[in-house]
Amino acid sequence: MKNFQSTLENFNTRLWQFHIPVPEDVAMSLIEGDNKRVICTINSAAAYPAALLKNQDYWFILVNKQLRQRLNLLEGDRVYVILEKDHSEYGFEMPEELQVLMDQDEEGNGFFQALTKGKQRALIYLVSKVKNPNSRLNKSLAIIAHLKEANGALDFKALNEKIKYYNNLDKNW
User: Interhelix angle for 117-128 vs 96-104, to 10°?
Assistant: First the structure.
């Protein structure tokens, strides 16, 4: 675990915006091979999974709008940061609904495991951001069905249509 103080900065670009610069020695001590995933706690209030990223000048961690609003953070504010290595398999906690389906569907699980870690995280996030268990199950069903129909090729536009289809099934019962 590494502690440091920094400030909330803004790149003012379309790709990346608000972030917290991370000292080089802190970043290097938390990177294991190509694994740059960490758990970030800001001002002792909000722990979230993140990635150590680097631009030409320094290492940083992104801070999204929702988190900035929750912590009332503005550009230039000083922040106290705790970083610890994220040793989880995917960089996010696997939602139970998705895990149960993958345990039951060998083919779907195989396609999921063949995806890059970033795509796996994106799918896990899609499911876990939903609070309703039934909606999480529908998203999980749609993901597995999409991966199987597309032979493991992930097409987010087609996946979104599949999610809509599964969500509408509930309304028709």
Answer: 120
Q: Cβ distance 90 to 121 under 8 Å?
A: yes
Q: Between 3.10.20.30, 2.120.10.30, 2.40.30.100, 3.30.365.10, what CATH number should domain 2-85 receive?
A: 2.40.30.100
The values of phi and psi at residue 105, to 5°, are -125, 95
Calculate mean pLDDT across residues 83-106: 88
Sheet containing 46-51: which strands, arranged edge to edge? 2-7, 78-85, 37-42, 46-51
One-letter identity of residue 153: A
Three-state DSSP state, 140 = helix
pLDDT tens digit string along 31-61?
988 889 999 999 998 788 899 999 989 999 9
Domain boundaries, the chain: 2-85, 96-171
The string of pLDDT tens digits covering residues 11-32 is 988 878 999 999 999 999 999 8
Rounded Cα distance, 92 and 30, in Å: 17
DSSP 8-class letter at 13: S
d(CA 122, CA 31): 21
